[in-house]
Amino acid sequence: MGAVVGRKRGFDRDEVLDQITRAFWRDGYQATSVAGLTEATGVNPPSLYAAFGDKRALFTGAVDRYQATYGRFASRALDEEPTARQAVERMLTEAAVEYTTPGRPRGCLVLSAPELHELRDQAMRAVEAKIRHDVDTGALPAGTDAHRLAVFVAATARGMSSLARDGATRAELCDVARTALSAWPAPVP
Amino acid sequence: MGAVVGRKRGFDRDEVLDQITRAFWRDGYQATSVAGLTEATGVNPPSLYAAFGDKRALFTGAVDRYQATYGRFASRALDEEPTARQAVERMLTEAAVEYTTPGRPRGCLVLSAPELHELRDQAMRAVEAKIRHDVDTGALPAGTDAHRLAVFVAATARGMSSLARDGATRAELCDVARTALSAWPAPVP
DNA sequence: CCCAATCTGTAACGTCCACTACAGAACGGG
DNA sequence: CCCGTTCTGTAGTGGACGTTACAGATTGGG
Fold first, then answer.
1. What is the CATH number of the domain that holds B149?
2. Dihedral of the CA atoms B92, B79, B59, B51 (nearest 10)?
3. How many domains does chain B have?
4. Contacts of B163 in chain A (CB under 8 A)
């Protein structure tokens, strides 16, 4: 079990994966070159390929890491908040913060990369399930269209990510979240 | 005036520019190769370069054409509708249709291409000016934050374009527009 | 202290890219 | 009918890309 012998890796795998994640996050899959990654990380191509695989594998590794760290806030809000309303409110207001945090790329990696359509659908379905649960249990009016509301939340998050990438301020994104939430149906009394 | 002599061009310049527009619209600037454009149009590279210039010029020509045709609906709504509310309502509902019209790429070219940040800002400022006018003339409540509302409209349009690219239906986009409009401030009576 | 195993840097591989040199074909004016 | 002019197709240019062959460096086990 474990490597029996051999020269030790000359770089911190997690640290390098983080730099790779930020590169893909900032520039997207296509615009990020392996040569650029070696320059950003100081790790030469053979070592990158040995540690992570080809460019596609580098990207999926970066996406996995993104979801486990920077993008974790969304599923956390859905898991930890009791109602859909509270979960979406927290998700969107935290998104305003996450999408404009200095020292990292702006916006959301998953919402920006065209090739991650599947992950976006998953996220939207999770929001829809949270809403549907509240409709079923009577916390939201019986007539509420859970799918429609989830699509609207998805649109808001995507719009916020796009605006963040174009340089929108944190306050502007908070206002977008607040305005969007004003379209939320009144809770059952 | 006019060319004095010489062989005539073997293709319809506008028709070819339209195919080029659709290619950039569908795949973006980077993912569109000149080789792909020659295949899509049947026009060889030297003729393309003679007629339009280099790849960057091809792209800006395509964007210009897009704004003059497919994307015209937005500025038309702002120009032709009397109130900001009516203009935005028409803009978003027509966007739902335009973004999902069969036989052409989905979503908006300007909202999808990262390099067109400037054009997006222009569009948002136009919406903001329309709203500010209604606030100044009393058609909207005096406390209305025109900028904040314009950013929200921009977020909605971007969200709709992104959803359209991921395959959202026309009905879903109409619902997003309707829900977003429910956040519009009540008009002054 | 040697050895098999693993990682490292150098330097290249073939492929695709945007772009163009060149020669010939099609045109209208004289 | 020739001529200058403009367009066209072929066939390349140099460069960037993702990926890897290879030889040397470094490790721990025996």
1. 1.10.357.10
2. 140
3. 2
4. 151, 154-155, 158
